[in-house]
Design goal:
Helix content is 38%, strand content 15%. By secondary structure, the protein is of the alpha+beta class. The chain has two domains: 175 residues, no CATH class; 204 residues, no CATH class.
Length: 394
């Protein structure tokens, strides 16, 4: 892509791109409109987007040419909040495999869940179908959410955005339903009558994608999302934006990688959850980094029954108060709107997916702990569990 190389080699680029980035950092704390929040769509409404490649390095190998989404491997667990009646605490665990690419059996979190799937398979082969189903459901609850990151243009938004970014290349957090639709059309084994003929992010023969929001019972559904029926080339405006801004490095928007000690604690929390622990221990919270809390309560103190309304209210409140916690540049660049710990107040017990749209929440600063401190906490958790087990069997 010669235009991209020319752009990157130009001396003018070094100064103008730095200025653009600094301007973006200055406003990111007030409005995180880099992400396109398609979940704000009304029911039965749709938005049209045009995906772009995962990077500009499309000439180096075939792999980047084929991919245009980046897996976001996270596990979300829900616990009862001991401090607020009927409230929930949602823990987001960034899976280490997302950063290292290691095997499942070597991941201290995933190997526990894989053991459940293996147990379910054995029970099924033994004809114990009901038990197999129950164990498999427990495993699925503790497994990854199937989300991906992508970037591209919003060709037509199904809702009005209060502030459109200067850089029209947006980042999308695609849920599992949307990814299923994308994979169904891009899979080489897909039905020939349904499969796409051309690479969907190609500049001339690419295809727009329609994100449609409908109902599935009481929850939102995106199962009717799909690629458009015809190809459409990049417009002159799109070409100019790519030339001026370049593409995002999607890895920068993955959750912050936990330390080995933090991950050890997360693995222990997963073990407790698998064993049936449903109550959140506030002591865990103080030793998980980064810890970002938000409470979905209205300005008047009452609860918000609709999770998407809650998200909007939180974002508006941050804008009104000029909250600058989110202007921590490093956190803003390396993180995303996905809190590690989210406290969900009563009446907002939305499906886990609804938490994905939370804007940069206030950062709660916790004292740094040494490796010994963290391991001590993990040992305390294990010891407490053994004591409870001993009491129960006494």
């Amino acid at each position: 892509m010669s235009s991209f190389i020319d752009y990157m080699m130009s001396e003018d680029t070094a100064e103008t791109a730095m200025k653009t980035m600094q301007e973006g950092m200055a406003t990111r704390g007030r409005s995180n409109n880099l992400f396109y929040y398609y979940r704000k769509l009304d029911y039965n409404a749709s938005s049209v987007v045009r995906f772009l490649p995962i990077s500009t390095e499309v000439a180096d190998s075939d792999e980047p040419r084929k991919r245009f989404t980046l897996p976001k491997k996270v596990i979300r667990l829900r616990f009862d909040n001991p401090q607020v009646a009927d409230a929930k605490v949602v823990l987001t665990i960034p899976v280490m495999q997302m950063y290292t690419g290691g095997k499942t059996e070597n991941d201290p979190v995933l190997k526990q869940v894989k053991a459940l799937y293996d147990e379910a398979e054995k029970l099924g082969k033994a004809g114990r179908d009901e038990q197999s189903k129950a164990v498999r459901e427990r495993a699925s609850y503790h497994w990854m959410r199937g989300e991906h990151l992508a970037q591209g243009f919003v060709v037509r938004s199904g809702f009005q955005e209060l502030e459109e970014p200067a850089n029209p290349i947006r980042v999308f957090e695609l849920n599992k339903q949307i990814m299923n639709k994308i994979n169904a059309k891009c899979d080489p084994k897909a039905d020939p009558d349904l499969a796409l003929r051309y690479w969907p992010v190609h500049g001339k023969l690419g295809t727009n994608f329609v994100i449609k929001k409908t109902h599935s019972g009481e929850w939102p559904s995106y199962n009717e999302s799909d690629f458009a029926n015809s190809t459409s080339p990049w417009t002159d405006k799109m070409l100019a934006a790519i030339q001026e801004h370049g593409l995002w490095q999607l890895e920068d928007f993955l959750p912050e990688r936990p330390s080995d000690e933090e991950y050890e604690m997360m693995a222990e929390i997963v073990r407790l959850s698998i064993d049936g622990e449903k109550m959140w221990d506030p002591d865990w919270e103080a030793h998980l980094k980064p810890t970002r809390l938000y409470k979905a309560a209205s300005e008047g103190g009452g609860e918000l029954s609709d999770p998407e309304t809650a998200t909007t209210k939180i974002r508006e409140a941050l804008d009104k108060t000029g909250n600058t916690a989110a202007t921590n540049v490093i956190a803003a660049l390396s993180g995303n709107p996905d809190p590690v710990v989210a406290v969900v107040e009563p009446e907002t017990a939305e499906p886990v997916e609804a938490l994905d749209d939370t804007d940069e929440p206030p950062v709660v600063t916790q004292p740094k702990k040494t490796v010994g401190d963290v391991r001590s906490i993990v040992n305390q958790i294990k010891s407490s569990t053994k004591d409870k087990t001993a009491e129960a069997t006494a």
